[in-house]
Write a structure and sequence with these properties.
mainly beta; four-stranded antiparallel beta sheet; 9% helix; globular
């Protein structure tokens, strides 16, 4: 749903190539966008333009839409001249920065990329989220797994660095990344299975992560930026795991 509150439309991606726009007030489908060649995995509304929507699919395409236009399609991210998609594999996570000028995409090719919405031909930052020798994961089972990334806001006052939190699809970690440079600040490891979502709570300066292990972990910003504290949290969490041999 658009964070601007200008309308009551929900955008839903699914195993269909279409993105469905549903009006919460009437419960009816208001519009359908033929977005991808196969499944439409991820969508995200612009935080500044209520009618701009980004979508990513299992075809590796990352697209921008203006739902007010008849054709709706605005642009593809990546090099259209060389027919290069945004990712070499499924795109399973999207997140706009709070100013709407950049878009972060995460893919099953074990990369996250930061794009400038005004010049979508090449990413401004590329972040390795998995092992370099891992192959892109595009099987039916894996391609339907999406991740929710999180980003510190520009005005929360917790840090001068704009921090991006990326759940890794190939490990049990959350990458903590400087979104402007792509530098990995630290790695948070407190889950026993894949991490699927991250949420930032600006008023408390806290990060919440959830995983396939059915656990939710809360992190303070002090812990996140202090690698020693993060290691202590990880060790304490590991020590609490039941011993199967007992």
């Amino acid at each position: 749903m658009s964070p601007t509150g200008a309308h009551a439309l929900i955008a839903a991606g699914c195993e269909s190539p279409y993105i469905r726009l549903c009006d919460l007030r009437s419960g009816a489908f208001a519009q359908s966008l033929l977005a991808h060649e196969s499944a439409s995995m991820s969508v995200d509304w612009s935080p500044v333009d209520a009618y701009m929507l980004a979508s990513g699919g299992t075809d590796g395409r990352l697209q921008l839409w203006d739902i007010r236009q008849a054709g709706s399609h605005v642009c593809d991210f990546g090099n259209s001249e060389s027919n290069t998609c945004a990712h070499d594999g499924s795109i399973n996570g999207l997140l706009f920065t709070d100013d709407g000028q950049r878009l972060v995409s995460a893919g099953l090719d074990h990369c996250a990329r930061v794009w400038n919405t005004a010049s979508p031909q090449t990413p401004t930052v590329e972040i390795q989220t998995g092992a370099e020798n891992d192959k892109p994961r595009t099987s039916t089972t894996l391609s339907t797994k999406t991740v929710e990334m999180a980003l510190t806001t520009a005005t929360d006052g917790t840090t001068s660095t704009k921090v991006l939190f990326i759940p890794s699809t190939s490990t049990c970690e959350v990458l903590v990344v400087d979104v402007c440079t792509g530098k990995v600040i630290t790695r948070l490891d407190a889950h026993f299975a894949s991490v699927t979502c991250a949420a930032w709570r600006p008023s408390f300066g806290e990060l919440y992560t959830g995983g396939a292990d059915s656990n939710v972990v809360a992190w303070s910003m002090h812990e996140v930026l202090d690698s020693t504290q993060a290691a202590l949290r990880t060790n304490a969490w590991s020590d609490s795991e039941p011993d199967d041999n007992v």
